[in-house]
Amino acid sequence: MSAPATNTKLSVFIEACLEPLPDDVLIDTQYNSMIRKQRHAQWHKEYYRYATLKGLLEAATYKWGECAYLFSAPIFLPPRDQVLKCYREALANLLLTPAVRKGDVDWKKRQINDLKYVPVDPTEVEAAIVADEAFLAAHPTKRTHRKVGQGVQPDLERERDRR
Fold first, then answer.
1. pLDDT tens digits, residue range 111-122?
2. Is the separation of the CB atoms in 105 and 99 below 8 Å?
3. Higher pLDDT, 81 or 62
4. What band does 9 get if pLDDT is binned at 50, 70 and 90?
5. Smallest Cα–Cα separation from 113: which of 131, 97, 101, 125?
6. Is-contact 104 133, C-beta < 8 A?
């Protein structure tokens, strides 16, 4: 049986544990966060382009003459065919852009069935999805757990007390 740890040994151990890491040493979660932030800018640039063109396509589809009285200045929209072509290209670019979250990968999976007129090969999209899933599995984020007393349970307890 080993001798019990003395106060000096324990204090040296605690000081070593609490000593800050050098600046050039990254913690895994910090590294994962940095890697994901690099993908974040690219994904959101393509997503905002896609969302803007989707809204413009919806606006170009409807007759704006009926709503002209709502605006003080006339609204001029590009022809629907040009917007549709740009929208399809933006969708193809977004499907090939590396995803940031699992929800983005799920969205890509749902889009695979509707690629009839989109200028992208479905095998390329499937390869991008596999690469995204591999990346997200290799770089997990830290999951925070709820503390006891937060969430749905306190509400249920209050309802029981009211009865």
1. 998 899 999 999
2. yes
3. 81
4. confident
5. 125
6. no
pLDDT band at 52 (very low <50, low <70, confident <90, very high): very high
Residues 3, 149: Cα–Cα separation, whole Å: 42
pLDDT given at position 117: 93
CB 95 within 8 A of CB 111: yes
User: What is the SS3 assignment for 116?
Assistant: coil
Which residue intervals of the chain are DSSP H helices? Answer: 7-18, 28-61, 80-96, 102-111, 122-138, 152-162
Q: Which position has the higher pLDDT, 49 or 155?
A: 49
* Tens-place pLDDT, residues 102-146: 999 999 999 998 899 999 999 999 999 999 999 988 887 665 555
Q: Which residues contact 85 (CB under 8 A, 6 or more apart)?
A: none
What's 38-76 look like in SS3? HHHHHHHHHHHHHHHHHHHHHHHHCCHHHHHHHCCCCCC
End-to-end CA distance of the chain: 59
b/e code 92-119 from CB counts within 10 Å (16+ = b) = bbbbebbbbeeebbeebeebeeebeebe
